[in-house]
Amino acid sequence: MLIDRLVATALAGSLMLVAGGAGAQTVGPSGETATPSAEVRLSDADLAAVKEKGYKAALLWHTSSDFTNAVTAGAKDEFARAGIQIVATTDAGFDAARQRSDIETALAAKPNVILSLPLDPVTSAEAFRQALTDGTKLVLLSNLPKGYKHGADYAAIVTDDLFQMGKQAADALAKALDGKGKVGYIFHDASYYVTNQRDQAFKTTIEKDYPGIKIVAEQGISDPARAEELASAMLVQHPDLDGIYVTWAEPADGVLSALRASGNTKTKIVTLDLAEPVALDMVKGGNVTALVADKAYELGRAMAAVGVKALLGQETPAFVVAPALTVTKQNVAQGWKDSLNRDAPQSVLDAAK
Question: Positive or negative CA dihedral for 11, 95, 62, 100?
């Protein structure tokens, strides 16, 4: 699921965080204040006004995954409420040229609104130009085509609340440690906007909000396959670590293997995104104490709602963020549904009983 967010590198340098501890927040490309997705709602009057118009929508995604499936489900359910027909759903396989072809094909069905994650800021800017010429409303997931302006070219950018994901990870680890202890910080050592901002939010929150917790070891990671090796080296140097933050779930599984290999049942792990191996350890009372995820289904619902409002000629917020949620043993079944709109793996549900 993390790879769905890695394609958001086009936002590096255009989205930013307003720093300041508990008051920090994710803001938009031109410093726009984020509008919570919960505030983007269709009224009964909105639904009545749009239902008999015969509007059509296209969902033009960058890939197919649990994440995009959940975004699609949220969008489809919201469009169904508005009586809007989905005429195309595509998967570009992370290929910008293929996405451009998908756009051209979808336009033949004359959609009134398109939801999409543009893969490349330059290529996408040109690829969507015909859609804009046709008067199609465009709602963007995470990425912004180069030179596009809110209101004129797109209705909104909708993305995760990246600061809250990192902050909630810090809060969860602090809770597990009763607000005191030594922790390790394993961050993504590559230039990716999404992971960089989530990682930094964790670190900022620990340093500003939890004076009893000290980050005593830091390690960058670019290859998840090296996570066990790097974590083992960290633990040799700092065998008394009370907790470790890991940038996402795949390398967290490697860190978990390192802890198991050393017989360490004390050090707590917190990581981001949902995955079966780390969730299984968590519900069995192992080292993993919490997983922090986005609400992918809510991303799709909010995108569709923005699209409907744009079709109705209503003013739409430039920058919308869907909430993060902390998943623990106690709420794993509901948390999985809230994030991905599907049941948690059966192994996790069975172990949680």
Answer: positive
Report the candidate in 213, 271, 263 with the shortest Cα–Cα distance to residue 242.
213
Burial state string for 116-155 with b = 16 or more CB within 10 A and e = fewer than 16: bbbbbbebbbebbeebbeeebbbbbbbbbbeebebeebbb
Domains, the chain, ranges and CATH? 2-161+296-323 (3.40.50.2300), 162-295+327-352 (3.40.50.2300)
CA dist list (Å): 213 to 132, 209, 216, 237: 51, 9, 9, 18
Q: Give me the mean pLDDT over the 178-189 stretch.
A: 97
> What pTM was computed for the model?
0.85
> What letters, b where the CB count within 10 A reaches 16 and e where it falls short, cover 249-268?
bbbbbbbbbbbeeeeeeebb
Residues 195-224: what's their mean pLDDT?
95
Please, what is the end-to-end C-alpha distance for the chain in angstroms? Answer: 26
**Residue 333 in tokens:** 């079944």
Region 261-282 average pLDDT: 96
Quickly count helices (H) and strands (E) in the chain: 14, 15
Q: What residues have CB less than 8 Å from 84, skipping those under 6 apart?
A: 50, 55, 56, 57, 112, 113, 304, 308
* 328 contacts 134 by C-beta, under 8 angstroms: no
* 35 within 8 A of 157, measured Cβ to Cβ: no
The residue type at 23: G
Radius of gyration in angstroms for the set of CA atoms belonging to the chain, rounded to a whole number: 21
Could you list the beta-strand ranges (E) of 78-175. 85-91, 113-116, 137-141, 156-160
DSSP string, 130-150: HHHHTT-EEEEES---TT--B
Q: Give the integer Cα–Cα distance in Å for 68 and 342.
A: 12
Mean pLDDT of 25-47: 90
